[in-house]
């Protein structure tokens, strides 16, 4: 007789091998035929080669034939571009990712592990992850009052570590909530659908509907349920890596500088012509952003929704920053209910992870009209304004053109020291002169013998008054700059802001 424990180790290896087989060859083939990777293939594709350290691999249910059905949630630690992360993914080959094949403690531990080790968390979501099917109730023998065990860790993580959620296939119920409860989420076009309940339940309320019609990317890529839509799983993994590269491992650290080769004194000559003299002409904001940040560093977030606001992450002299801008190609850059919610989300993200904000401002005010009122634009606009005023991270505004009204006032917190510049194209006030002059001088114009001449004379006076140089004379704007000097000045801001960043949790939790 020997004291060796080799038989038990052999049994361990047998069970580990069964776990790696997931739902079996047929289910794996069906997953591949649907154009989707298995959870283990996804983890290998996301993480640095050979770095995955799985936890709870042999958790599952025994089967009558002596085998066992592995739990359909795989998680552990690994490295992503050399940085430690926690990753957890649903196994759709086992009961379609339904909860009745999972062991909830694994999902809970993934969340708690990320929180307590202060590591970024990546969720690979495909399935329900909630109560499972109605058939599960027969095994339980009763119904139950709904609860989300471990949700406290989901909430805690939003204020502690970067959380990325990738919707890689059909996602329903609690799975959909896990996608939304993140700092950054993407879905794969055509392969992923996200909904509170699937087509069979929805069909009970009316006509039959497909998964794509119910919760495809055309819906959630534009309403803000997910941040972005990508074309493939590979794109989703690339986005996760890039997003996390701008953030610290947790709020207890600061975003790291990654020095590059882009000169801080680079001046783009075409910026002097970037803003049309005709105020009614729009222009493209993204080339301007690309011109002033480190080359190739701009990662836009949320391009498909709240489109009059542009949000993204970038670097200035290697320092990570949050970039906010107006897009005059959409509603003239005016603030809508959806763009206001997007701005609030983005400022909260910057505040949570200590990212200085660079705001390239072209804000003509709130979008007006019946539809804007019905959308509660003022309510959400005030929330965006409040987010700006609550933020404590270093903030620099560069006024490119319009700044009007309450929405325009949200370009900065006016009570703080103003690190602010304006281009010569800047135009500001309580409301635009266009349309405002006729209203303000209506009685005078109606009484005039020559209203056209009078209007022209008023316009000449007001054009002189609206000059940004008049505002600078009163020191209501700190500096008017040559647009070509924007990048050097922003790089200077980033370097000055870097030592001002303070690690630690913020006074309120990111809510998503």
How many individual domains? 2
Largest sheet: 8 strands, mixed
For this structure, what is the CATH homologous superfamily of the largest domain? 2-enoyl-CoA Hydratase, Chain A, domain 1
Strand residues, percent: 15-25%
CATH topology title of the largest domain: 2-enoyl-CoA Hydratase, Chain A, domain 1
Q: In CATH, what is the class of the largest domain?
A: Alpha Beta
| Contiguous helical run count | 21
Taking pLDDT < 50 over at least 5 consecutive residues as the criterion, the unreliable ranges are none
- The rough form would be described as elongated
Description:
- With 512 residues, the protein is α/β, with parallel strands linked by helices.
- The protein has 21 helices and 17 strands.
- The protein has helices at 6-20, 25-33, 39-46, 104-117, 136-140, 151-158, 174-180, 199-203, 211-215, 217-223, 233-245, 286-292, 337-352, 370-374, 377-390, 405-409, 433-440, 442-447, 451-465, 468-473, 486-497, and strands at 53-55, 60-62, 68-70, 73-80, 83-90, 121-127, 163-172, 184-188, 193-195, 228-230, 299-301, 309-316, 319-326, 357-363, 395-404, 420-422, 427-429.
- Strands 1, 4, 5, 6, 7, 8, 9 and 10 form an eight-stranded mixed β-sheet that branches.
- Helix 4 (104-117) runs parallel beside helix 6 and helix 13 (337-352) packs parallel to helix 15.
- The longest helix is centred in the last third of the chain and has 16 residues, at 337-352.
- It is elongated, with a radius of gyration of 27 Å.
- 44% of the residues are buried.
- Residues 5-259 form the CoA carboxyltransferase N-terminal domain.
- One of its GO terms (molecular function) is transferase activity.
